[in-house]
């Protein structure tokens, strides 16, 4: 049975631990398993998962948080599996498979938790407000800002995972788009498409490209032939949405807004954390989540420093303000007439930086939604549905059609799970077809808001503005970009077929 059955939804991990995944897969694959795709447990699992997915997609209508139905469905699916295996006298098998699925989620959870914590810390220090002020001071129009954030997301995601890229750019968009919800909505859609497209041409930009490169079916340098198709995938929908962006310019901000104390250091520590995560994977063969957790300690120690030096930093008021600082009477009038003293007062009243508060403020609904999807898909894979789907794709179907359908399926099921299925089947296809399936699996998730980690993350970040329905309205435009990238690949990379 394909190893993909035991690797559910490795969404958005930067440089995933393939060696460990392979070992884990081989150990699980030695278990005796049953094909439950024609069994009542399999049918019920499919129905429950589909209903939960529908409820998650209609969150803004039902006002039921998307994590609730998905976590409940995932629990039911594994109950069905465990009941069958217990009756068969193999109750330990279901537990082993579930723990393998849970381990995958645990790595993803820790990775996302650290990324979100750093973003919350940067927001607290005014990093995104400062960037917003800088961009607005350039008097860019909403349309120009739309393209600037899109191209930034495209190129950043070629070296960083799509989730972190989308959350980073989403914070900037929300800060700039206050008072213009249409700009925020379309820019979020644009960032999702750009983030997924940007990772599809780099061997280490996305899990799909990394898996294909690791397998050896495509040489390292040939991945970059997908750059132009990826650009087409991003620019076609962006070019159409451009005309629906307001032509106005946001209110110009001429005064520079300085970041709070420690802002630049937190940016540096976040970059260092990403580098640490990559080094853990490439040089130590440790999961990237382990590197991210080490990076979290950088922020923890720095927050300790900020807390311990806060009082001393607040007391060090310039000499010319010392006399004012001692005056208690008529203080409001004094501060009102003395801008420097007012700034000193604000500095003295600075709230302590609490790292655990940043963790508490994470988007837990999104994190639990990931749990439901990953564990649910893991159960369906263990039942055997991923194997059935993979075999039907390449049995008697033209490889081009099959690879296009893989991209469509990645809008519903994680591209990493699907790509593992395809690689395990090892269909006899040309390098051009391998490049095609790498492209389609990488960008196919853009067609739905829940099709990629970038979309799910932004839905949690821009609640009520960027939603499943708002993304769905632009799905036809995104499909045009999807088809355009495929046509471009055949046009410029025909030598590989």
Automatic annotation (TrEMBL):
Per the UniProt entry, the signal peptide is 1-21
Task: Indicate whether Lipid biosynthesis appears among the record's keywords.
Answer: no
Keyword Transport part of the UniProt annotation? yes
Q: What membrane topology does the UniProt entry give?
A: Multi-pass membrane protein
Domain (Citrate transporter-like) spans: 54-442
Provide the primary localization. membrane
Q: Report the subcellular localization.
A: Membrane
Transmembrane regions: 40-58, 70-88, 145-176, 223-244, 264-283, 289-306, 367-388, 400-422, 434-454, 474-492
List the InterPro entries.
Answer: Cit_transptr-like_dom, NhaD-like
The record, for Pfam families, names:
CitMHS (PF03600)
Keywords associated with the record? Antiport, Ion transport, Membrane, Signal, Sodium, Sodium transport, Transmembrane, Transmembrane helix, Transport
Q: Which family does it belong to?
A: Belongs to the NhaD Na(+)/H(+) (TC 2.A.62) antiporter family.
Report the protein name in the record: Sodium:proton antiporter
Origin species, per record, is Candidatus Methylobacter oryzae
């Amino acid at each position: 049975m394909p190893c993909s059955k035991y690797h559910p939804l490795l969404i958005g991990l930067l440089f995933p631990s393939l060696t460990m995944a392979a070992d884990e897969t081989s150990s699980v694959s030695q278990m005796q398993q049953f094909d439950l795709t024609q069994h009542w447990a399999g049918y019920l699992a499919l129905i429950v998962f589909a209903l939960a997915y529908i409820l998650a997609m209609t969150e803004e209508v039902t006002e039921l948080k998307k994590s609730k139905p998905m976590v409940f469905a995932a629990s039911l699916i594994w109950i069905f599996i465990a009941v069958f295996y217990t009756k068969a006298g193999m109750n330990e098998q279901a537990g082993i498979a579930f723990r393998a699925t849970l381990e995958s989620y645990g790595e993803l959870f820790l990775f996302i938790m650290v990324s979100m914590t750093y973003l919350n810390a940067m927001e607290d220090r005014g990093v995104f407000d400062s960037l917003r002020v800088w961009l607005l001071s350039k008097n860019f129009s909403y349309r120009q800002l739309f393209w600037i954030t899109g191209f930034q997301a495209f190129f950043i995601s070629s070296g960083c995972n799509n989730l972190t890229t989308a959350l980073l750019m989403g914070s900037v968009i929300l800060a700039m788009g206050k008072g213009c919800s249409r700009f925020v909505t379309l820019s979020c859609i644009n960032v999702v498409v750009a983030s997924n497209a940007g990772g599809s041409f780099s061997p280490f930009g996305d899990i799909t490209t990394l898996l294909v490169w690791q397998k050896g079916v495509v040489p390292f340098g040939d991945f970059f032939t997908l750059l132009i198709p990826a650009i087409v995938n991003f620019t076609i929908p962006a070019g159409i949405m451009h005309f629906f962006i307001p032509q106005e310019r946001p209110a110009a901000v001429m005064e520079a807004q300085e970041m709070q104390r420690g802002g630049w250091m937190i940016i540096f520590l976040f970059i260092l954390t990403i580098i640490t995560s990559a080094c853990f994977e490439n040089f130590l063969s440790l999961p990237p989540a382990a590197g991210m957790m080490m990076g979290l300690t950088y922020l923890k120690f720095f927050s300790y420093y900020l807390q311990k030096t806060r009082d001393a930093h607040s007391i060090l008021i310039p000499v010319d303000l010392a006399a004012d600082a001692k005056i208690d009477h008529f203080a409001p009038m004094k501060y009102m007439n003395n801008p420097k003293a007012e700034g000193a007062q604000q500095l003295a009243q600075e709230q302590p930086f609490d790292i655990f508060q940043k963790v508490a403020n994470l988007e837990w609904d999104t994190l639990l939604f990931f749990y439901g999807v990953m564990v649910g898909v893991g159960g369906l894979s263990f039942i055997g549905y991923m194997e059935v789907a993979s075999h039907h794709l390449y049995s008697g179907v033209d490889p081009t059609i099959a690879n296009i359908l893989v991209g469509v399926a990645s809008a519903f099921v994680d591209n990493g799970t699907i790509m593992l299925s395809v690689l395990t089947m090892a269909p006899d296809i040309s390098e051009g077809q391998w490049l095609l399936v790498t492209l389609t699996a990488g960008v196919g998730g853009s067609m739905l808001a829940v099709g990629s980690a970038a979309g799910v993350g932004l839905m949690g970040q821009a609640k009520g503005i960027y939603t499943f329905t708002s993304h769905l309205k632009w799905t036809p435009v995104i499909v045009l970009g999807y088809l355009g990238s495929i046509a471009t690949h055949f046009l410029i990379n025909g030598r590989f077929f």
